[in-house]
Amino acid sequence: MQFQNIKEKILIIDFGSQVTKLIARRVRDLGVYSEIITPKDIKQFRNFEKVKGIILSGGPSTVTKDKHQSVPKNIFSKKIPILGICYGHQLIAKIYGGKIRSSKKRREFGRAIIIKKNNSLLTKNFFNSKKNVWMSHEDAVVKLPKNFRAIAYTQSSKLTIIENRKENIYGVQFHPEVTHTENGKLIFKNFLFLICKIKKKWNVSSQKIRLIQDIKQKVGNHKVICALSGGVDSSVAALLIHKAIKKNLICIMVDTGLMRKDEFKYTFKIFKNKYNFNIKLINASHLFLRKLKNISNPEKKRKIIGALFIKIFERESKKIKNIKFLAQGTLYPDIIESRSSTGSKTSKIKSHHNVGGLPKKMNLKLVEPLKEFFKDEVRVLGNSLGLTRNISYKHPFPGPGLGIRIIGNITSEKIKILQEADYIYINELKNSGLYKKIWQAYAALLPIKTVGVMGDSRTYEYTCLLRAVTSEDGMTADYFNFPKTFLDKISNKIVNNVKGINRVLYDISSKPPSTIELE
Ligand code: XMP
After folding, report:
1. Cβ(88) to ligand 1 under 6 A?
2. Engineered SS bond to 27: which of 34, 50, 128, 286, CB 3.0-4.6 Å?
3. What CATH superfamily is the domain 9-195?
4. Where are the domains of the chain?
């Protein structure tokens, strides 16, 4: 474990819920270090002295089957407070002799109203009598386990919150970690500070020195290579590594020609001039354009862009002698996902190419200084390293770039048109103070031309689609509710300033059922 200096932590046992990482985020947001481990790993886990509380996550399996995921019973005898969520709640009930039934009658998906029955430390100030929460379960606890009492219920499930005050064990059937649960954060706050009595000590910036030391120790005098894209993750990872080993970090920047307007130049300027990085620039835009000619299938585009990127990166890095390490901006959620507790993978909607994780053949050891952090924490870390906020607060940008935002085939003319429209849109968002309220925004170019009228002339031009979403992690998203004045202004500005566009649409679909990108 990287953080030997952590004195107190919360352990989260992951039974495979899609939202387990949100539990860890909520806990860290409250200033407490949390770590996710699998049910398999908890069996080998010995170092309990730092653990001040355990949270059992939700998950897709059912305790009603003989063979179900569980935890070693001895974690209940360590006098460490335990909170079970959904599957975790049912597991606690099962272990303590309660009854769980799987029934269509009792299942609850989405919003539900819970009603208070008894007071509990866990729900202090949480509700007067009722609260809106978010549920996702078919199994329900139908008989109270021994030494537990009921704290709250819903119309369909009578034991929605339960507690064993003496042993400090709590179960909630709903998901306090998702934003749809009103004031869910308070459940964690109460659990952490009233029940576990843990102190608020977690602070990302304070990890900076330790991280730099770790890199120095790991890398020694060897060289590290890094693909620098100018995104938050690769920028913060590179900055940390640069602080540790200076010129022994060599960054490769590949210009695919599919970046936002001026983005490539800007990134180069910042890292070269401001931070004095050792950067190798490769202009490959003509190559990408040639390989993408007449390709309109989104997955084919992704494959071509990904494969070409790796090819160029490998070729260029082979020209540099004595490289031992490859730096990657891998984040904690990537690590959690790659060691799924159930081994099952959610079905692939789109193949996501990212620069990270790809050059496997190169036989390099990995340096991944951000692998214990969430994106928001990486932004804070970036700020504390002096990274310009233009980068640390940048919206996510997909690896294939504008390649998947020009719907249909890609031409240099279309790239230019889109870059202009996108530039106006993003600048307007920044100028109006909306950029930081939005998780991701972009302009796309649709492959349809429509008729318009400008002055006295008829036009027949492309359609531009604007997208802006709010989200926590990109898994689900809502479209951003712009004031009409903003939409009026931006549509006007784009049509008046970008030759080639005569119509602007705003995408009002959420994810699911749509996705954030169009392709
Ligand atoms: P979707 O469109 O799947 O996007 O809702 C979720 C998030 O992933 C990003 N995205 C990609 N990132 N390579 C990437 O590196 C890709 O091929 C890719 N496709 C989507 C998207 O921008 C959003 O942040």
Report:
1. no
2. 34
3. Class I glutamine amidotransferase (GATase) domain (3.40.50.880)
4. 9-195, 205-392, 411-506
Q: Do the domains 205-392 and 9-195 match in fold?
A: yes
**SS3 of residue 149 by DSSP:** strand
Task: Give the CATH architecture of domain 205-392.
Answer: 3-Layer(aba) Sandwich (3.40)
Q: Which of 337, 348, 350, 475 to mutate to test the pocket of ligand 1 (most atoms within 8 A of CB)?
A: 350
d(CA 169, CA 78): 12
Q: Is 177 a catalytic residue?
A: yes
Q: How far apart are CA 162 and CA 138, in angstroms?
A: 18
Tokens (6 digits) for 504: 């602007």
**How far is it, in rounded angstroms, from Cα 276 to Cα 58?**
47
Distance from C-alpha of 40 to C-alpha of 56, rounded to nearest angstrom: 13
Residue labelled with tokens 């990085």: 277
Tell me if residue 430 falls in helix, strand or coil.
Answer: helix
The CA–CA distances, whole Å, from 363 to 221, 262, 307, 359, 369 equal 18, 34, 17, 8, 19
Distance CA 480, CA 216 (A): 43
- CB 301 less than 6 A from any atom of ligand 1: no
Q: What's 270's DSSP letter?
A: I
Among the listed residues 163, 177, 420, 519, the single catalytic one is 177
pLDDT tens for 284-343 read: 999 999 999 999 999 999 999 999 999 999 999 999 999 999 999 999 988 877 765 554
Taking residue 268's Cβ as centre, other Cβ atoms within 10 Å add up to 18
User: Hunting for tokens 């689900």 — which residue is that?
Assistant: 476
Quote the pLDDT of residue 353.
41
Amino acid found at 380: V
Considering the four listed CATH numbers 2.40.50.100, 3.40.50.410, 3.30.300.10, 2.170.150.70, the one that applies to the domain covering 411-506 is: 3.30.300.10
Q: Is 138 exposed, middle or buried (0-12, 13-18, 19+ CB in 10 A)?
A: middle
Task: Note the pTM of the prediction, 2 decimals.
Answer: 0.88
